[in-house]
Amino acid sequence: MPSHVVVDRTAKHVVLICASASFVILGAIFIFTMREGAPALQEIGLYNFLLGTEWRPGQEMFGILPMTVGSILVTLGSMVLAIPIGLACAILLAEVASFRVRRLLRPAVELLVGIPSVVYGLVGMLLIVPAVREIGGSGFSILAASLVLTAMVLPTIISISEDSLRAVPKGYKEAALAMGATQWQMIWHVQVPAARSGIMAGIVLGMGRAIGETMAMIMVIGNSPIIPTSPLSQGRTLTGNIAVEIMYASGIHRSALFSTGVILFLIILVLNTVATFALRRGLKAHHVA
Amino acid sequence: MKKLLTLLITAGLIGATVLTGCAGTPATHDTAGPTGSITEAGSTTVQPIAERFADVFTQMYPKVTVTIQGGGSSVGVKSASDGTVDIGAASRELKADEPALVKHLLCRDGIALATHPSNTVTGLTKDEVRRIFAGEITNWSQVGGPNENIIVVAREEGSGTRTAFEELVMDETLITNTAILQPSNGAVRTTVSITPTAIGFLSFGYLDGSVSSLAVDGVLGTIENAKNGSYPIVRPLYFLTKEAPSGLVKEFIDFCLSAEGQSIVEDEGYISVD
Q: Is the ipTM here above 0.90?
């Protein structure tokens, strides 16, 4: 057999093995967390676990509703801020900014992704928490957590939205301008709607990052297992629930933390599926055009 | 900036305690030394001291292996009584419904009440402390301080320090669930040091200039006061054996209680026993 054919076949198999590795890892993680979490779910019952409002492991009370609410609130809070800021930034980078401004801004946005989350947490703890305390409460709050998350998800939203704005066929823009649209009308009524699916995908991926964030959240949210009653109230996220307590947990408590992981896994699975569909629809739309 | 440093140093210290296990080389008793193995399990508060004991002991007697495991005080009691390990460890007194075991008092650990240095309250009674952590007293003015809400900082469920605090102070009442929970002594200290109206509890070993330590029932939380028994929030750390120890286990426990062993205790920030 000629050597290039051997190389060709080997390469094909190597790539296949590598590709299936990620699938195997995903499956292994899911099966392992399920197995470790199952005893707690059996003993507590799915209903009490998901909808219980008291988390007191010492008293054998394992309700994760406060943490689910906490995770959802900080995620929504960060989205309310990050979507307008991110979209504005993406429009600036894709449509408005001169080459020089873009050359400065784009690396800055990309750099934000590389900052470790513990550093966001530190800045949040020493800057944002005291600032929020000026408004009221202890400062360790849903609001502080949302603000920190906003900074963390912005780069994801900006870069994906910018890419999808750039992917809109030139003809759309030219046609709009030729028909006498102003630049803003062109951007808002043509470019943004055409890039809608890509922008949606960016937002959903940003949400995924927000809901999965752990370290920075532990440092600024206060970790109290209560359902927050205001943006200034403390809270706890699903990820924080696991990270804060796993060190000393044993028996059913430990198992309940793994069950928390299963719930988190399912939430992120749903978010990613939505993102994938949004992206695919976006790509198709452009091909038709 | 200073607080940022403290935080980084705390993180560094955790790494350092792992590393220092390898440092220090006491005299090796060569060839003639005993052989065999010792197993220990239980309290995670005792664990770091036990690991240091084990390191030094196995350097003295290279043919001995000492296995140290965590699990918590209850695990220590259970595994010592059913014989799964040679030595159990507990950071609390034995409960009435637990099997009787031989207790070897290793050292003591004081739990300090930390507040922000700017706080004008310098002391509380034990009952006031309990009511603050239970969420019954919520304003500093109720205990002679300024009209500010008290921000309660505690450890997470399962922590040995929290369990001991609950036993020594809370007396069956639950810690309020609106308390800010932090996952380590260091994080509690940092939180208190950046929050002017906060109160938290932490192991004596973690006290530094960034927080002030309150007097409880009029007694200042210092190593001396804990040693002479006047400070009320002190917990014992025990090694537990099923019967009076003999052979290698006795040798190991005797070493822990010797002057050399007790200097390790003080190194780790705990209160030695004389």
A: no
